[in-house]
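Quick one: structure for this chain?
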Amino acid sequence: MSSTAVPISPERFAIAIADLPLASLHLKASELRNSIRHLQYSNWELRRFAEEGDQDCLDAIRENREVIRRVYERILLLRREVERRGFMWGDSEVDEKEEMDGDVERANGEGAQVNGGASVNGVANGRAGNGEGEGGSLTDDELARRLREQMEQDNDGDGVHL
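Got it. Here's what it folds into:
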């Protein structure tokens, strides 16, 4: 974000979404979650350089953390708007309040997720796991290991089965 741009206040955001169709509220929440994933991944990539003392990377991580916090606020405002209209926030949608309260490290870019479910540092779909794929998700390492095992078992020479 440029140093002259000021993010929209939560109050103005709440006013702006009040007239949006329900589908647009859910779409916006999905877009915001995707933005968070990208910021988390960026922080994960920057962390190595920040640990080596790169001040620019440290500053970028701090800024990303603040943006992630603001984006979570926006998602909570979207949820409140959906519920204000008498609809339920979908079961498949993450409880952002829990996400913010219970998973601060991940919100700060530690163990970032990418592509909506793949994981980095053993975090899959927002939950730290043991690689057993709770909720249908696997860590990158676990997925690679299982694919290698399957390829070894299926090495019967008649190609890849999808």
